[in-house]
Structures are given as structure tokens and as C-alpha cells.
Amino acid sequence: MTPHTPVGRPLRPQGKLLQEDARRHHRSLLLQQLFRDGPASRADLARASGLTRVTVSDLVGEMVAEGLVTELGAPEVTRVGKPPMLVGLAADSHHIIGLDLSETDRMSGAVVNLAGTVLARHEVHVDGAEGERAVELVLRLAADLLAMTDRPVLGIGVGSPGVVDTSGTVIDAPNLAWSDTPLAARLAAALHLPVFVANDANTAVLGEHTFGESGDGGLMVLRVGTGVGAGFVLGGSLLHGHLGAAGEIGHVVVDPEGERCACSRTGCLETVLAAPRLRRTVAAPGVDAPAALADVGRRLGEVLAPIVAALNLHEIVLSGPAELLDGPLLDATDRTIRERTMPISSTGLAVRTSKLGEDVVVVGAAVLVLAGELGVS
Amino acid sequence: MTPHTPVGRPLRPQGKLLQEDARRHHRSLLLQQLFRDGPASRADLARASGLTRVTVSDLVGEMVAEGLVTELGAPEVTRVGKPPMLVGLAADSHHIIGLDLSETDRMSGAVVNLAGTVLARHEVHVDGAEGERAVELVLRLAADLLAMTDRPVLGIGVGSPGVVDTSGTVIDAPNLAWSDTPLAARLAAALHLPVFVANDANTAVLGEHTFGESGDGGLMVLRVGTGVGAGFVLGGSLLHGHLGAAGEIGHVVVDPEGERCACSRTGCLETVLAAPRLRRTVAAPGVDAPAALADVGRRLGEVLAPIVAALNLHEIVLSGPAELLDGPLLDATDRTIRERTMPISSTGLAVRTSKLGEDVVVVGAAVLVLAGELGVS
DNA sequence: GCGATAAGTAAGTGCGGTGAACTAACTAAT
DNA sequence: ATTAGTTAGTTCACCGCACTTACTTATCGC
Hints:
CATH topology of the largest domain in chain A: Nucleotidyltransferase, domain 5
Distance between the termini of chain A: 29 Å
Low-confidence stretches of chain A: 1-8
Shape of chain A: globular
InterPro entries (chains A, B): ATPase_NBD, ROK, ROK_cs, WH-like_DNA-bd_sf, WH_DNA-bd_sf
CATH superfamily of the largest domain in chain A: ATPase, nucleotide binding domain
Number of helices of chain A: 13
Structural class of chain A: alpha/beta
Family (chains A, B): Belongs to the ROK (NagC/XylR) family.
Number of domains of chain A: 3
CATH class of the largest domain in chain A: Alpha Beta
Oligomer: homodimer
Helix content of chain A: 25-40%
Number of strands of chain A: 16
Mean pLDDT of chain A: 91
Protein name (chains A, B): ROK family transcriptional regulator
Radius of gyration of chain A: 22 Å
Order of helices and strands of chain A: HEHHEEEEEHEEEEHEHEEEHHHEHHHEH
């Protein structure tokens, strides 16, 4: 067997590893299998994981006791030997609270089950709340959602605008006037649950990675809304970046002779691609809307081409108003990327719009919890 | 303690974890400590790693027996209590063979010790060798270098041009006429040693990551030679990309009205930035060389800006002919990146040239072995 | 019915860590 | 010189986890 370069695995060891960690890891391994490929017998799980049937039985027993996994009876098809007992993830044994704070006028959230299905929604109006008042609004939204489920709650995931560090502190979010606001800590202290906070584009890419039809290569999700932001899953891990600001491409300059942007720069990507701006563009009298959208798509392609080549991405998913993104814009983006990169970079690439709609962020926030608590995604 | 989003850690569990793995992991943890911060006592190692003194003593004893680590006596400074016995990595207990196949006319290699010091060099001329003959040339180079050390050899690391997959198979390297050439397997079979092969820009970024003065944030190394390529260390891991082609940015179009490129496209980055091309540019009669270099730098900045914003990089290192890269070109690149990205992306960023010179690739190839065999970098 | 085959369980083993208690070697104060 | 206190490193008993071995259970094909 030839040694091979580590993939996804960090180059350096991270910390000490207890037996307890190994057990949790193996639990995750089994859960992941059930999560992705559905019910299986203990023997199936043993074969898939490489663990022995004994160990698998032990772990499964533990998870059945917790209610996370349930026995489902034998499969219809009948073969030689003792018929297996299928076990499967009990999707509604626990619920997750997912919050989406990315919209300007409201904060929305949902109760989500372990299969990523949205079971209930709730929202609060922001009404200009800022700073501490905005934090309290989030607390109330989360508490309201908690009251809407009678199942044990695995945790709370939050997709927040702005730059968020790995401890769940919002470093900077102008719209809500947050800076160095320890949102995860505040929620955890108030609600006594595990809390995970990430940038909304980052939760979106997690949602797409887990519940979209994406493969295992590099994935980029570009969110087009009031602003423009992106999230990346590379080598099986969410990319944070040096200061947690990975994906902040809304203010990359695409046209030095373009419009003045609120950020004081000129011709930022947002000045052509933000949703309100796109709507104005296509509604302008005497404008060939498809051509205008294609023009925006071309500019987007120019920004994405270097990224595609650098990262050798597998998929780019556009998330936002489909009526604007899907069509000439997407086509022009795709075409421009291919025109501007080598076949080796672009042949393995698919560019498409998201099928998850507006739920990507809340569902992705739930994935944050799933990954953090169960090691599943 | 608040849960936090995993960094560098993959979202999903990868495979089963044996106790043996835990022990190797802990060994790496100690080696890493000694590697980075130099000699320490067993008690120091215990404090730094979180392992108990008992475990550390056990592991250190094992490594001392193997010769990897040696006792160095007590430190000069005298404090209360029993004086500690310092232990340190025995840099010359094992050697590593590093190969650099990226130059067009020759293949070069070196014997490197565990501290990354080049102890001996050797090279062979390619003389147009291709395909199988080129493979044999690599075998001979490696064998020659093996004969130059009397220490046990930890492994062989290779920086190859072209696209290399994680198993060390060269998917495509036009210059050497390799396609799907299992280089790592061939070397391993012939020399009975662990072999690691990666793209030369990828080994370069590893070299810079480990032996350059770079921090722990995202690092990009841009190699400017006959061609242009890049490598990335993100979140503590080497980035491979979907098909192993991450970093292949030499043929990103920077100027649709530019020169025709060998790749049949027009205005690729290589048509302005490749070293031979740069030399011609500055030597052209009647040309303002600094201005011309600045112009190239600006174009490079335009390609890098989206990448910087997307990845929130910490450092960009240019590796290649310093007389061309350092100065107007670098300055213009830096300036353009800052003009075209938000402060949040660019303030944490440093753009500089490499101090490791032409050895980056061989030393980086050695890092490939260090990381693979000892879990150290 | 009976052997073959597969699923799942019970008991015992070994490995790799831990904590507690120990020895060794030194400094500092009396 | 004696005593107390501190730090390094080791010995030993124990524990958690996954493994192997050996079994029971349950079905199929004959």
C-alpha cells in the first residue's frame, strides 16, 4: 500500500486524543452512515465502518437507549441466515433550532428535525433594533421556537450576517451594530443548550453541502440578497479564513469605472449583483433585461474564474431570487468561467442554482448543530 | 465552555480510529512540540500536550530508543526542584530525500535532515526524456541521493509538475509526457521506502508553511517559473481540490485582448507573468522596466483579489526570480489587491517574496514526508 | 429434518491511557 | 546541618474501549 498525502486531515496534530474521543468518533461514523444511506443492520454498519459487529452492537445499543436510533424490523427481502434487524436514525427523536438573521427587516427561525426537515417556523421583526436590543430579539426568537417543540433539543444553530469567529462571537455586523458580540455565549448562557453561530453564507454552504445534491469535491455557495456573500466547503471542512472573513466577496471590485459603492470603493460586485440592484436593472425602461443579466453574469464569472482555478472547485451554487439568477445570468457566469479557465479546472465543475430556497440558512444552521453535536453531515 | 465551530477538522468522521492511531497521534503531538519550539523536558511536554507525565515519559522513551529523540542534559538556568532533563529532536537521526522535478531542463534533489536543512544536492539532466524514460531518470536520481546518506531514510518526497492526485499518481504532466503515471508507487516499489508525491507548487507551499516565517492563517504560495502555479494551505491542511488541480491559475485569463497562449486561450496569466516572458518584457528596448513590471503586478493583483477576499488569506508569498518579482511587481500586486478588496480581507494580509529561494520545492517535498511519517510540520 | 450461512450476543483479552503515590534531586529558610 | 518545599520523573493499580473467541438464534436449500 502506497502512502498518500492526507486529505482533509490537518498537517499537524491538534490535541490529545482520549479513548472517549475515539468512541464518539465511532458513534459519528455509524450515525453518518445511517444519516446518508438510511437504515441498515448492525452487520451492515460493521462492514461499512470496519468496526467489528460486537463494537457496532454496543454503540448501536447505546444510541437506541438514547432514542437517537430505533429498530425498524427486518427487511422484506429474504436471504440465507438470520434475518437482520434494521436500525435507522430516529429523525424526530431530537429537534434542532435554526435561526437566520441575514434578512434586514426580520429574524426568522425554524424547528428542524435530524433529517433536515423544517417542522415549524417563526419570525420576529427587527424594527431597527440594534446592538443589545438585537441580541435580546434573538434570545426571544430562540425561546419562542424552543416552546414550539416537545422533543429534546440538540442545540441551536445561527446564521448571522457579518464576520463571525470560531467561538461564535460576531466580530462585526454593521446592520445589527454588533461588534465583538459573543452571541453564542449569550444564547448558551440564557438557554442552557449548545449553540453554534456562523456567518449566514457559511451556514448556507453547509445546508447545500448536506442537503443539496452536491458531491464531495469543493463547494461554493454564493448568496445573493441585500448583499453578496459566499461560503466554502473545501476538503470536507468549512472554510473560515484567517479572521473568519472567508467568503466576503461582495466588495471585490469588478469594474473600476463602475458605480460608487456604500463601502466607499467603486464598482464592487454588490453594485451590480445585489438583489435590489438586479431588480432595478431589469425593470429599467428601455433595457434588454436578458442582456443586462448576462452582462452581470459575465462580471460575476470574471470574479469567480480565479477562484475556480485556484480551488479546483467541484460545484458553485447560486442562492437567491431564482427569477433573476437562473437563466441568462447563470449561463453567462458559467460561460465566462469556462472561457477564462483551463479545462482541467472547469470540466469537473458544475454551476447551478440552489434547490433549497430560502431555507438554506436555517437548515444550514441546523447542520452546524448536527456536525457539532453528532458529527454528522 | 461554549461549543465552537470546528476548524480544520472535517465535518464528517473519516474512518475507524484504533488505539494505535491515538498513540501515533500523541507521538506526533510531542514531536511537533519539539520540532517547533525546540528542546523541552518531559514535564514541559506534558504541560504543553495535556498528556500526563507518565504517558509522555513512555512515548519519549520509545522515541529515544528509536534514536528520533535524544537527551540533552539539564538546562543552565537553575531553579527550585529537581533539574529537568531536556530532550530534543535528533535532526540527523534520519534523513529525507526531496526531489524537485519542476524545472524543464533538469531534475534536482537533495538529502534533507529532520530540521529541513539541505545536506547534499544532486541533479540529473532531463535531455528530453519523456514518459517511462523520465520515470527511470527519477528512479536513478533518488537512488543516487540514497547512496549519499548513511542514515536511515524516513522517506522520499517529490514535487512534480502537473496535476497529481492524493495517491501520488501524476494525472497529467505535459512536459514529461506523463499521464496517469503512478510515480509514488513506482518509486516505493523500486526503493522500498515511503514515497509522497505532490504538485511542485503544493510542496512549495508546504515548505513555506513549515520553514518560512508564516503564521497559521491561510497561506498561498505563487510560483513563477517557466509556468505559473500556486499552492494553498488553508485551515492547517494542504488544499488539493476536486481533481487535485488546486492552484492551477497559470491559465486564468487576465486580458482577453492579450497575447495568444500555448493553451489556445488568449491573455492567460502566464503570458505576462512567466519568468521567461518577464525577462523579455524588461529587456525590451525602449521599455520602462519598472512600469512594465508594475503593470504585470497590477494584473496579478486583479487575479488575486477575488481569491484573497474569498479565502481571507493571511499571507501570499511569491516564489521565483527575486530581481523580477521583488519591487515594482510585488508593490503593484499588493496595492491592487488592497484597492480591490475590503479592509476586512486585506488588513490581515501580508504579501511578500519567499526567503527560501530555489530550495522551497525540495524542502517542501521533505515536509511532505515529515508530515506523512511523523505527523510533524 | 439437517447442514450451511448470516446476525447478533456474552465473556475474556490487550492496549493505551489515567490518577495516586512514590523516589530523586534540587533550593530556601531556619 | 536540618527541615520544608518544589519540581522531575517513575511505579503501580485501574479503567474504558475495541478486539477475539465462542456461542445462540434464525433463516435457506436440500
